[in-house]
Amino acid sequence: MRRSKLFVKTRRENPTDEEARNAQLLIRAGYIHKEMAGVYSYFTLGKIVIDKISQIIREEMDAIGGNEVLMSTLQNKELWQASGRWDDKQVDNWFKSRLISGVEVGLGFTHEEPLTSGLRNFVASYQDLPIYAYQIQTKFRNELRAKSGLLRGREFLMKDLYSYSRSEQEHKIFYEKSAEAYLKIYRRLGFDDGIIFRTFASGGVFSKFSDEFQLVTPIGEDTIYIDREKNIAINKEVCTDEVLDSLGLNKTALEEVRAVEIGNIFTLGSKYSDAMGLFFTDKEGQKQSIVMGCYGIGVSRLMGLIAEHFADDLGLVWPKSVSPYSVYLISLGNAADVIEAADKIYKRLTDAGVGVIYDDRGGASAGEKLADADLMGIPMRLVISQKTLQENVYEIKDRTSKEVKLVSESDLIATLEK
Amino acid sequence: MRRSKLFVKTRRENPTDEEARNAQLLIRAGYIHKEMAGVYSYFTLGKIVIDKISQIIREEMDAIGGNEVLMSTLQNKELWQASGRWDDKQVDNWFKSRLISGVEVGLGFTHEEPLTSGLRNFVASYQDLPIYAYQIQTKFRNELRAKSGLLRGREFLMKDLYSYSRSEQEHKIFYEKSAEAYLKIYRRLGFDDGIIFRTFASGGVFSKFSDEFQLVTPIGEDTIYIDREKNIAINKEVCTDEVLDSLGLNKTALEEVRAVEIGNIFTLGSKYSDAMGLFFTDKEGQKQSIVMGCYGIGVSRLMGLIAEHFADDLGLVWPKSVSPYSVYLISLGNAADVIEAADKIYKRLTDAGVGVIYDDRGGASAGEKLADADLMGIPMRLVISQKTLQENVYEIKDRTSKEVKLVSESDLIATLEK
C-alpha cells in the first residue's frame, strides 16, 4: 500500500476527548476513529489489524471443531423472556429499540438464546451432538462508563463460541481443549509465555469457577494472585483460604499482580438449553438435558490491549503476526534515482508476498516519514536514500531496536521473507 | 468438511413462517435461520457463501483504489442533525436507541455522515484527495414490511463505498470506473452478460439520474425498459418521452421486462461534505467543496438473489464462485471398503485444495444423501459405492446436468482441479 493512496494521516498530539492510552495511540496513528465514548470506527490499517487478529482466532476455533456462524444483532424479545434475561432489572446493559409496528427488539450483547433456539431445528438425537458453533460478531453493551478505549466498548467485536455436549464429561473434554486453544491464540498474537495466566474466577450457577485468561501488565484493572511454578492464577475476587485449600494452592507461593482479562470460558450447565427447549434423546430413547459452555474473546479489546501493552514512547509496536504490514518503506528526498529505486524494491517485495507500506509522499519530510514509521508500529523500517544508493545497500531497522543495519539486496530479501 | 461435523440438517418442507422463495430455500438447505421478519442468522454454509460474495466485491473495490474501513453501527445524533437526516419525518426507517444516560443514538442505515465527519482529521489540501473508502458492514433499516427474505432486510450486510473528489470531472471518471467494477462483480458471481443492465433511474438533488444495476428475472419487483442493442436500460419510474429523448433512446427499440435491483451508484454532490464541514484548499489556496458519490451493493440481498435466480425444483444451484464447497462427496452404504475409499478421496481432494463437503453420515440413506446434494446446491456430486469400487471408477454429476459420468481417478482430479 502506498501512503499516497492511504487516506489516513497521523497526529503528533493526543486527541483531547480520549483518556485511554490504547485509543489515544490508535487514533494518533490513524487506525481508529472515535464516534462516541466506547464506540469506534476502524480505518484502513485498523481494519487489517482487526482482520488479522480475527483470522488467528478463527483458525484455532476451526482446529477444535468449531463451525463458524453469524447471528443477527436484532434480538427477539420472546426468546430472552423465556430465559429471564429480557428485563432490564436482570440485564442492565441492554440496548433496545422498536420496530415500526411498536414491537420491542434488543441488540445482542451475547447469543446463548438465539443460537440455542435456532439449533432446535437440528438437534433430536445423541447423534446430532456435540455441537461447537462460534462467530466473530459485533456486540452491543450499554455500559454506564466507557472510558477505557477499545478495552471496554459499547459496541465491540467479539468471538463467542457455544458448546453443546451430551454429558458433563464430554463438556469437560472440550472445555479443556478450548483452554489450550486460547493459550495458542495468545502466543500467536505475540504474548510470551509467563505473562498470560489461566486464572480461577467466580463461576455461575452451574460451576464453582469459570476460567479467565489474564495478561499480567501494570495497566491491568484486575488483581490476581499467580503461582509461577504451577503456571496458574486465582482472581482476588474468589481468593479465600477455603478456595485456596480446595485448589491445592499455597498462599505463601502466590504473587500479587495487576492483570487484564483477555478471555474467559464458562460452564453454563443446562440453564439456556432447558429454557429454549433444546433436548436430545439418548441411546436408550430417554430425553436428556444438554450441557452448554460459552467461550469469549474480545477481538477489539485484544487489539487495544496489544496496542497498549507493546507501545513505547515513539508509538505503536505491533507483533509481526498482527501488524498491518511487515515493512515500512521510506524514500528519502525526491531525487529521481531514489524514487526509482524505492518503486523497484516496493514492487519486488510486494511480488514476493511481503506486506509493504510505502511512504512515497513527495510533500513529507524525512523527519515526518521516520516518525510515522515508528508511530504506526510497523515491525521493520527500510530506508532508500541517495546515500544507500551510492553504497549499493539498504538501510533496515527493527521497530524495537535502536540500531540501523546496512544490508545487500539479497540479504534484505532473505531477512524480510523469513 | 464432514457432514458429521456440520451441525445443520436439511428439511423437506418449507418453513411455515416464510413466504419468500429465497429464504425458504436457504432455510430448507440449512444456510440461514429466521430470527424475525427481515432478520436472519447465517449458519456454517451460509456464512461461507456470504464471505465468498464479500471477497469478490472486496477485490474489485480494492482494484479501483478502495480503502476498506469498518464504521460503527451506533450513530451520533448531532452528525445526522447537521445534515437534516435525524428527524423521523426525514428518514422514516431509523432504528433508534438510548444510552443509559438517556442520550439518543441511531443504528446506521448508511454512513455518509460519520465517514465524512471522520475524514475531517485527514483532509486539508488538494493533495489529500481523492479518497475512496468502502466497508462491508451490517446495516439496519426499520422496514414496515419485510416479506422478501434476504431481498429486503431490516438487518442486512451491505458494501457501501463513498468517493470524495476534487471536481465534477474527477468524480465522473471514478463513477464510470465503479460502474465497470460492478459489472465485473456480477460476472464473477455467475450472472451471464445480457441479463444485467445498467439502468437509468431517478437521481437526487445533484444529479438528474442515478445508475441502478438491474437483473432481468421474472421474480423481479421493478419494471425496466431495456435496449438490448445499446446494452442499457431505463427504469419505468423515470421513463418519459422527454427523458428518452435526452438519453437518445428510441421507444420502439425498448423491451419491457421485470427486474431486480442488485446495486446502485449515486452522485451526491457536496450536500454531505458541506454539511459536515469537509472542504479542501486548492492549488491557488482557495477553499473548495468536495464532490461525493456513493456506491452500494447489498451483499446478503445478492446471496438471496443468487439463491432464488439459479434454483430449480430440487433446490439451490450455486455458481462455482460462491458455492460453499465445490464437491458433494457421498459414500453409499456402510461397507468398510466404501468408507475407506471415500475417506481416501476426501483427503486427496482436500489436500489438493478442492473444497469438499463429505456426506459421511452412517445413519443417512442413499436417497437422503442424494437429495441433500441437490438441495444444498453444490456444483459437483461425487459418489463412491460398492459398484464404482468394483469398476474402479468414480461417479460424478454436475448439479445442472441430468447425466452421471463414470471417470477414472486421474480424470476426476483433473476435472475437479480445473
List the helices and strands and how they pair.
Two copies of one chain form a homodimer.
Chain A: H1 21-28, E1 32-36, E2 39-42, H2 44-63, E3 67-68, E4 74-76, H3 77-82, E5 95-98, E6 104-107, H4 112-118, E7 131-140, E8 155-165, H5 168-188, E9 196-202, E10 209-216, E11 222-227, E12 232-235, H6 241-247, E13 255-269, H7 271-275, E14 279-281, E15 287-289, E16 291-298, H8 299-310, E17 327-331, H9 336-351, E18 356-359, H10 366-376, E19 380-384, H11 386-391, E20 394-398, E21 404-407, H12 409-417
Parallel strand pairs in A: 3-7, 9-12, 17-18, 17-19
Antiparallel strand pairs in A: 1-2, 4-6, 5-6, 7-8, 8-16, 9-10, 10-13, 11-12, 11-13, 13-16, 14-15, 19-20, 20-21
From the structure above, extract its key features.
homodimer, 418 residues, five-stranded mixed beta barrel, 21 strands, 31% helix, elongated
What does this 3D model show about the protein?
Two copies of one chain form a homodimer. Chain A is 31% helix and 29% strand. Chain A is α+β, with helices and mostly antiparallel strands and 418 residues long. In chain A, the strands form five sheets. Chain A has a five-stranded mixed β-barrel. In chain A, strands 18-17-19-20-21 form a five-stranded mixed beta sheet, sandwiched between helices. A three-stranded antiparallel beta sheet of chain A has the order 4-6-5. In chain A, a hairpin with a 5-residue loop joins strand 14 (279-281) and strand 15. In chain A, helix 1 (21-28) packs across helix 8 (299-310), helix 2 packs antiparallel against helix 5 and helix 2 crosses helix 8. Chain A is elongated and about 80 Å long. The model of chain A has no long low-confidence stretch (mean pLDDT 95).
